[in-house]
Amino acid sequence: MINKVTLIGRLGKDPEVRRFDNNSSVCNFTIATSESYTDKEGNRIEQTEWHNLAIWRKGLVDVAEKYLKKGHLVYIEGKLRTRNWDDQDGNKRYTTEVVVDNFKMLERRENTATSGDVTYPSNSSSFEAPSSSGMMSGNSSSNEENDINDDLPF
């Protein structure tokens, strides 16, 4: 069985980080994905879906908190998780969210420190700081990624 989610969308708000007494933290944010089509009458229809995301991995939480901002286009890999709880009135409540294993920023922002790509592989716990070229990537064994031509479409 496979539980894998891949999304490309824009952040709907800045990430919110909560820290707990046991030295763990969680980063929550939303992204919007859109698709458009033409209906039978020839009208162009755009449909937007909102997705709740949660990052629990410490290093990835830190990177998201530092570099992700509202409006950024991101590539997300993760898995679906449904949680339930009882609200104040005793009603059973449910929410489904994407637990993020990996993300990558897909566009450059000219006037911010977040220009470039941020990626954090799911099998790594290290993060490489931005180089002078502005490119950022996770767990790189060489600076090859920093030499990539900026004309790439992603």
- Examine the coordinates and then state which fold CATH places here, giving the name of the CATH topology: OB fold (Dihydrolipoamide Acetyltransferase, E2P)
SSE arrangement, N to C? EEEEHEE
Percent strand: 35-45%
CATH architecture annotation: Beta Barrel
- Beginning-to-end CA distance, first to last residue: 30 Å
Q: Give me the secondary-structure category.
A: mainly beta
Number of helices: 1
SSE layout and pairings?
Blueprint: E1 5-11, E2 16-19, E3 25-38, E4 44-55, H1 58-67, E5 73-86, E6 92-105
What does this structure look like?
A 5-stranded mixed barrel has the order 1-3-4-6-5. Strand 2 and strand 3 form a beta hairpin. The chain is mainly beta and 154 residues long. The relative contact order is 0.17. The chain contains 1 helix and 6 strands, in the order E-E-E-E-H-E-E. Helix content is 6%, strand content 42%. The model is unreliable at 111-154 (pLDDT under 50). It has a single domain, classed as Nucleic acid-binding proteins (OB fold (Dihydrolipoamide Acetyltransferase, E2P)), CATH 2.40.50. The protein has one helix at residues 58-67; strands spanning 5-11, 16-19, 25-38, 44-55, 73-86, 92-105.
List keywords for this structure.
disordered C terminus; five-stranded mixed barrel; 154 residues; mainly beta; single chain; 6% helix; 6 strands; OB fold (Dihydrolipoamide Acetyltransferase, E2P); globular
